[in-house]
Specification:
Distance between the termini: 46 Å
CATH topology of the largest domain: pyruvate-formate lyase- activating enzyme
Shape: globular
CATH class of the largest domain: Alpha Beta
Structural class: alpha/beta
Strand content: 15-25%
Number of strands: 19
Number of domains: 3
Radius of gyration: 22 Å
Bound molecules: S-adenosyl-L-homocysteine, iron/sulfur cluster, FE3-S4 cluster
Oligomer: single chain
Length: 439
């Protein structure tokens, strides 16, 4: 049997795309393996949201050269967001000519044909579509975790935040039909899935491209009605599109978890405008207040960019102010990275690296203090945990997540994996909680 390895960089969209590739490969009789030396096929599913992500891919590609020399029959494929950019494809052709197959995000469903064609030629096969086609339903998929599954509800993005490459790599926004989504989730539940994460770059604008009127809140109510499904998560929510109807749906649907990922990106109104985010600091803080009021104990997480072009010390203080006021449960923090082809790349006043790093460190300090405070509130509280597996370091320690998406470690037997249990938090730490299983 032929063996494959898929390595994935980037967000859940990419992870889920890799699950689809794995599904197609399984249908072709391929088996997954761990060691690149044993692989007949290596696929890199790439991300270009920041320069770091790209550099990692190039570094890893370079390491494949000696392997390919030893095993010329091995096929190397590169796909994902990076490939949607012509200058990157050119760079790969020039510097990594040993790559056999290049394809993009819009023609992932054609992978079996591409692979077959690739095997019949000695040249590099490059097929990238500039534009998204129709949504393709029914692709097989091998989910990494049976208990938890990603489900795309929409693809693409229309927001064009001025720093962001995603609208160029993932195309325009388009939604899957609710029936297709519900059908997929029912099938997952029949196969043991307890928790789904609904994926979209901006789930709050779900439904806008569909003929029958439906919005994200309606979809949540529909999915909430699926029997034996335990938990519903979703990401990402763009603050500009969170309606009061959606907040009500989150509060009313018992399966929808008490967690919202609400990227703020920056605190200064001037910077937010220049980022094309379409909300102000005041609107964001009011939104957070409304959500907290409607869903007590909800955890709020965010994405923050430091050092956007033109960001002054005063602007940055506004970001710190939002962090202090909201008290995030967690945050992904990024140093602004120039993305070729985006409007912000051409803006004047790019911020020097040392200033970006200095601000980044200050942000982390304040953020971590807040996260620690949030976790400390959970001391002696009883939380509901879905047990996902054992702890990385200790086989007798189980690891699970609360509905608020916090990791909890506690002693227990492996038979409990997959169960939803009550755990008392005994020792809250900055990045995880330790607890005791209640009998
Ligand atoms: N659709 C999601 C996330 C997309 S990318 C959303 O709108 O929130 C994930 C995060 O990467 C973004 O939220 C942003 O914080 C960060 N990001 C995107 N482009 C970036 C860039 N050029 N430099 C630094 N961070 C960036
Ligand atoms: Fe990028 Fe903005 Fe779209 Fe998110 S909403 S993917 S940050 S353009
Ligand atoms: Fe995701 Fe990276 Fe593409 S964040 S959408 S994999 S550019």
């Amino acid at each position: 049997m032929k063996k494959y390895i898929i390595e994935t960089w980037g967000c859940q969209m990419n992870e889920h795309d890799s699950e689809k590739l794995a599904g197609m490969l399984a249908n072709m009789g391929y088996l997954e393996c761990d060691d690149k030396k044993d692989a007949d096929l290596i696929i890199y599913n790439t991300c270009c949201v920041r320069e770091n992500a790209e550099l990692k891919v190039y570094g890893n590609l370079g390491q494949l050269k000696p392997l390919k020399q030893k095993n010329p029959d091995m096929i190397i494929g590169v796909c994902g967001c990076m490939m949607q950019q012509a200058h990157i494809v050119e760079h790969i052709k020039e510097k990594y000519p040993f790559v056999d197959l290049i394809f993009g995000t819009h023609n992932l469903h054609n992978f079996p044909v591409l692979l077959a064609n690739c095997k019949q030629t000695d040249n590099m096969l490059v097929e990238v579509w500039d534009q998204e086609g129709e949504i393709v339903e029914g692709l097989p998929s091998i989910r990494k975790y049976g208990l938890k599954a990603f489900v795309n509800i929409m693809y693409g993005c229309n927001n064009f935040c001025t720093y962001c490459i995603v609208p160029y790599t993932r195309g325009r926004e388009r939604s899957r039909k609710p029936d297709d989504i519900v059908e997929e989730i029912k099938n997952l539940v029949d196969n043991g899935t307890k928790e789904v994460t609904l994926l979209g770059q901006n789930v709050n604008s779900y439904g806008k491209t569909l003929e029958k009127p439906i919005d994200f809140a309606d979809l949540l109510y529909q999915i909430n009605g699926i029997e034996r499904l335990e938990r519903i998560r979703f990401m990402t929510s763009h603050p500009k599109d969170v309606s009061s109807k959606l907040i009500k749906a989150i509060a009313e649907c018992d399966k929808v978890c008490e967690h919202i990922h609400l990227p703020v990106q920056a605190g200064s109104n001037r910077v937010l405008k220049s980022m094309n985010r379409k909300y102000t600091k005041e609107q964001y803080l009011k939104l957070v207040e409304d959500i907290k009021k409607a869903v007590p104990n909800i955890s709020i997480t965010t994405d923050i960019i430091v050092g956007f072009p033109g960001e002054t010390e005063k602007d940055f203080i506004d970001t710190l102010d939002v962090v202090e006021k909201v008290k995030y449960d967690n945050a992904f923090t990024f140093i602004y990275s120039i993305r070729k082809g985006t409007p912000a790349a051409k803006m004047e006043d790019q911020i020097p690296d040392d200033v970006k790093h200095e601000r980044f460190n200050r942000l982390l300090e304040i953020l971590h203090k807040g996260v620690e405070e949030q976790n400390a509130k959970l001391k002696d509280q009883i939380v509901e945990v879905l047990v996902e597996g054992t702890s990385k370091n200790d086989d007798d320690v189980l690891m699970g997540r609360t509905r608020t998406n916090k990791v909890v470690n506690f002693k227990g037997s492996k038979d409990l994996i997959g169960e939803i249990l009550k755990v008392k938090v005994t020792n809250p730490k900055k990045f995880s909680l330790f607890g005791e299983l209640l009998e």
